[in-house]
Design brief:
The chain is an alpha/beta fold. Helix content is 46%, strand content 13%. The structure holds D-serine.
Length: 411
């Protein structure tokens, strides 16, 4: 019996059950992944005990000599991985990273242009209940009705009309590559700054498989736990000219003590992403998403934008005469975890929208490839065709479990 099990069996049991769930099911939430054992060791280390307000060499606490080494490693590796002039690795999350950029360049009430949440954007890109939407005046561009690609003409028109101080690119449910150069041209034309939130596709950017925002954006924000496969956390990259202001916005502007154990995990993650195997992994993620798209399309489902060129698919499930809520529930019963999701121009409600979002990063980490994607695509189709048939779903659950037994998870 270990210390946690002995002292607090309730928490221990919940962790065991979550380990089982992650091992025995197919994790297809596009923003999730399995981080490595070394990253988990860093996050579970004694660095959690240390207060280190400030930055390496300029702390408000004694005893920071070792955490300084860790934060310097994380910053250097982040700069080198993304060829960025400056990195701040302290944001606790992607939301904090975005808030730090807003605090750096905006005053309350300033106008910001960002992608509509219902077209694939994010809460922190100006949703009315989010702090971003309450503090700043967000206006939203969308995707085209016919091809579901970002409407760059609308973006340019709105930029000229609203003269935003900041334009935000990046998305959490957009299955295509984002053309950052077009954003940069529009931002330059209207005198706006450009922030790219690359949280979803940072892993692809790191290995050159996605258009790179770093050379053209004033600020690039990301989480470290999605395609990058690191610990749960955030980061901001920017030009040297913004570095001092940005650092002040993170601390003391938004946060107190940084999570040094998580920053250690980020350092390990960036080191892993520099290894050649990480590019192979990201190629596998793309290939798996493409294969899955083919299978689902052939089975009669509609895909937003007709397919994918990144790690995720946005699937319109209404051709099966069901909504996203039932689709998510039926797949859950088979051990396939996805999330219901609005699709552009959705006629249904957010809690029961027309779509589901499916991603391949986590399954690719387990070593699954096109053969497994073909099986899984077939199972998804069966579940969505018969979402209320308990016998069909439990038979699919057995097949999912049997597949999972051949692919381990880091633990
Ligand atoms: N919640 C994340 C996602 O699922 O895309 C974004 O923060």
């Amino acid at each position: 019996m270990n210390a946690l099990q002995n002292q607090d069996p309730q928490v221990w049991d919940a962790i065991q059950h979550e380990q089982d769930r992650q091992r025995d099911g197919l994790e297809m939430i596009a923003s999730e992944n399995y981080t490595s054992v070394p990253v988990m060791q860093a996050v579970g280390s004694e660095l959690t005990n240390k207060y280190a307000e400030g930055y390496p060499g300029r702390r408000y606490y004694g005893g920071c000599e070792h955490v300084d080494v860790v934060e310097d490693l994380a910053r250097q590796r982040a700069r080198s991985l993304f060829k960025a002039e400056h990195a701040n690795v302290q944001p606790h999350s992607g939301s904090q990273a975005n808030a730090a950029v807003y605090l750096t360049v905006l005053n309350p009430g300033d106008t910001v242009l960002a992608l509509d949440l219902a077209h694939g954007g994010h809460l922190t890109h100006g949703m009315r209940l989010n702090a971003s939407g309450k503090l700043y005046h967000f206006v939203h561009y969308g995707v085209t009705q016919d091809h579901h690609r970002i409407d760059y003409d609308q973006l340019a028109r709105m930029a000229r009309e609203h003269r935003p101080r900041l334009i935000v690119a990046g998305a959490s449910a957009y299955p295509r590559q984002i053309e950052h150069g077009r954003f940069a041209e529009i931002a330059a034309e209207v005198g706006a700054r450009l922030m790219v939130d690359m949280a979803h596709y940072a892993g692809l950017v790191a290995v050159g498989l996605h258009d790179d925002p770093v050379p053209v954006a004033d600020f690039v924000t990301t989480t470290t736990h999605k395609t990058l496969r690191g610990p749960r956390g955030g980061m901001v990259l920017c030009r040297e000219s913004y570095a001092a202001d940005l650092d002040r916005s993170v601390f003391p502007g938004l946060q107190g003590g940084p999570l040094m154990h998580v920053i250690a995990g980020k350092a390990v993650c960036f080191g892993e992403a520099m290894q050649p195997g990480f590019r192979t992994y990201m190629q596998g993620v793309l290939e798996n998403a493409r294969v899955l798209a083919e299978v689902l399309l052939a089975g009669g489902l509609r895909l937003v934008s007709g397919g994918t060129d990144n790690h995720l698919l946005l699937v319109d499930v209404t051709p099966m005469n069901i909504g996203g809520k039932l689709a998510e529930q039926a797949l859950d019963q088979c051990g396939i975890t996805v999330n219901k999701n609005m699709i552009p121009f959705d006629q249904r409600k957010p809690m029961d929208p027309s779509g589901i979002r499916i991603g391949t990063p986590a399954l690719t980490t387990r070593g699954m490839g096109p053969t497994e994607m073909r099986s899984i695509g077939g199972w998804i189709l069966s579940a969505l065709r018969q979402p209320n048939d308990a016998r069909v779903l439990s038979d699919l659950r057995r097949q999912v479990l049997s597949l999972c037994q051949h692919f381990s998870v880091p633990s």
